[in-house]
Write a structure and sequence with these properties.
2 copies of one chain form a homodimer. Chain A is of the alpha/beta class. Chain A is built from 17 helices and 11 strands. In chain A, α10 packs across α11.
């Protein structure tokens, strides 16, 4: 199946209204993808009405085309379905992972050891400074910092991470826009030196109800969540609760008992979150829980992933300069559709990149 | 046996050198007091040398006389042996209670529900203010505040407790002097509205080695210990460790992770101490652990005292609305100076309050 056909089907399933995410996940889990659409055509997906079968098979093509245009407008744009090897395993492990992940930036980053830093939008200067310093220290030690691109603590954490390393923003609107607007330049930096992530289609705007949903992805992408500042009803407390439910470690930074911005942090510690007094403490706590793969990624951050993949047969047919598909076909002596499929897979695995005029090779063997 | 003979023997045992406290406690535990001195006379106390038997039977009479003079110089002075019913039960329960407790003030107070507040000598202003406020709140709720009479947090805790209630100072020198000297007036107030406590004879001066020993009594007299501020090597951490060993609850007040005066507090929380964000939280935690007697003492702290006071003769001369002093004089047919004196006493005992225009009655009989 061509890449865009595959995506069209995922988008149709994602867009299907009247069926909740958990039900969609159960369907995808229960029925092999190869049979899924045959059964859909025969109206045989369990629990779906006739109208829903129809909506699945005849989705809003205009909306899908707009989304695919976003995808194709920039080689840094990605749409990653749940079953794709680029989908981050730690997020796939949660109870309600998004069916599709929209990414602007480097999706490989989502496979690296990560810590979330979250906190109040109207944070204190001290809180923002601490977030920025800790984020810098943690990225220097090889960790990726995940946050929500909000004002206050989130923004400071992203800034600190960008000083020495990479960061992931999980956003409450589609990646076609930036919320809050004053973080537009920050979002651009993250696309270049990290990854912007959303479960919302590129054209979707920010809504209040999006942010609690966004928070489960913040913690789902992370081994642990650091709550830097949080008032009594802070959204960060939701992130902390979700993180605990997802089996992620929760850390909270203490402060004066008179500071309303710390009430939430102190409550979290009283309820069992770890008191975070130093970023190195946090890491020591987490290193014991990392898988060997994640530990290796931490020690050798960029080289690993590709080395473990088998070298694709077509690799030598693609040059380090733009190579037209026709040339690849001629060199490999394989049918065009086979070549296209393999090139797509090679692109997903990071061996080559699609560029104007063909494909360019990115790595040696 | 006369009271002073009994005390002389306890003092002789306490003064016996070359035998540690734990060994002395074991002897007192193993041998009934009625047989103890018979066996001593026959040289049959297990593990004691001939010279030690002699020292026990022929102690330094001059030192003992000086100590008994201190006892007899003031009706508020007490020397309480381990087996005395006035000895506080919570202190008797620890592994190494003092054989003798020297008290200046009200020894009954040592039987009431108590919380220790401890912290740095060179405390921050914020720390001292918090200690004072929490101590006031806790005494208003019926708890006694125990601390070490040191500068900084200790002094602030005693001051706060004295504003509405009572406090206990456990001291690192004999009660014949005050250390630090600038807390002399504070020590006098505590004698009047609380109790000064020491295991050292009245003539013993302050020594560095006394303070860690003193700390086990601070925690031993308390249901819980609140560490308000503590640096990395603070003596308060010793108190906290001793409290945990004694099975007492340990609370620590958080603060900025950048504040060196809080490092010890944060470490305590990381090691399992409860984060204290509010004095009421602390009490809720402790109420569950109190004995029925202690709970009763707590539930009726102020009404009990007042109820046990005789109803003042003037009470019916004061209305529940503001009553001019002239009216009280007219009704009571007593001289003005007598009326004023009695009104002041009634106010101290909580029967009436001074208001613009006179006095108002606060309670029935």
């Amino acid at each position: 199946m061509a890449k865009s056909d595959l995506l069209t089907r995922w988008l149709a399933l994602d867009a299907l209204s009247g069926v909740g995410l958990v039900r969609k996940l159960a369907l995808v889990e229960a029925i092999p993808w190869s049979q899924f659409w045959e059964r859909a055509k025969r109206g045989r997906l369990p629990g779906l009405s006739e109208a829903q079968h129809r909506a699945l098979l005849e989705p809003d093509q205009a909306a899908i085309q707009r989304t695919l245009s976003w995808l194709n407008s920039n080689p840094q744009h990605h749409i990653i379905p749940l079953t794709d090897s680029r989908y981050p395993p730690s997020l796939r492990n949660i109870a309600d992972p998004p069916l599709l992940l929209f990414v602007a930036g480097d999706p490989d980053l989502l496979h690296r050891p990560a810590l979330a830093m979250v906190g109040s939008r109207n944070a204190s200067l001290a809180g923002r400074q601490l977030a920025q310093q800790w984020a810098r220290t943690l990225t220097e030690l090889g960790w990726t910092i995940v946050s929500g691109l909000a004002e206050g603590i989130d923004g400071a954490a992203h800034q600190g991470a960008l000083e020495q390393g990479q960061t992931v923003s999980v956003e409450g609107c589609g990646l076609g826009s930036v919320y809050p607007a004053r973080h537009r330049a920050l979002a651009q930096s993250i696309t270049q030196n990290g990854a912007r992530v959303s479960e919302f289609w590129p054209g979707v705007g920010a809504r209040r109800s999006h942010f609690p949903r966004r928070n489960r992805i913040v913690s789902g992408l992370s081994q642990g969540v650091i709550v830097v500042e949080a008032g009594l009803r802070s959204g960060s407390l939701i992130t902390a609760r979700l993180a605990a439910e997802q089996g992620r470690e929760v850390f909270a930074v203490p402060g004066s008992v008179l500071d309303p911005n710390r009430i939430g942090c102190h409550q979290l510690i009283q309820q069992g979150a770890k008191l975070a007094s130093d970023p190195v403490d946090i890491i020591e706590e987490l290193l014991l829980q990392l898988s060997t793969d994640a530990l290796n990624a931490l020690i050798r951050p960029t080289t690993m992933d590709v080395e473990s993949l088998p070298v694709p047969a077509l690799l030598d047919s693609v040059d380090y300069d733009a190579t037209p598909v026709d040339d690849v076909v001629a060199r490999s002596q394989l049918p065009v559709d086979v070549v296209l499929e393999q090139l797509t897979e090679m692109e997903l695995d990071g061996w080559v990149a699609a560029v104007p005029g063909g494909y360019v090779r990115l790595r040696g063997k």
